[in-house]
Design goal:
The protein has helices spanning 7-18, 34-42, 65-73. The protein has 79 residues and is mainly alpha-helical. The protein has a domain at 22-73: Type 1 dockerin domain, CATH 1.10.1330.10. It is globular and about 35 Å long. It starts with 6 loop residues before the first helix and ends in a 6-residue tail after the last helix. The structure holds calcium ion (2 copies).
Length: 79
């Protein structure tokens, strides 16, 4: 009557919660390295780009030095 709250459902949720979060992981491969930097460089100094392909790390809608600074701060996270 109240649905199945079995072990399998909880495990799926736990896996998602346990997944590490790296703020500057632009390409989604769970680290911050030259792959992410290459994507950032491709959007360099775009001023009206919204998410900027994921490179707008501080959420201000522009790809600037502030985003590069955020990446530098998180450099090699995940290794
Ligand atoms: Ca990455
Ligand atoms: Ca930005």
């Amino acid at each position: 009557m109240f649905g199945n709250f079995g072990r399998q459902g909880r495990n799926a949720d736990d896996e998602q919660e346990d997944k590490p979060f790296y703020p500057a992981d632009i390409n989604g491969d769970e680290d911050t390295d030259f792959g992410d930097y290459a994507m950032l460089a491709g959007q360099w100094q775009e001023v009206v780009c919204g998410e900027c392909g994921g490179t707008n790390l501080n959420g201000d809608g522009r790809m600037t030095w502030d985003d590069l600074e955020e990446m530098a701060y998180n450099w090699l996270a995940g290794f």
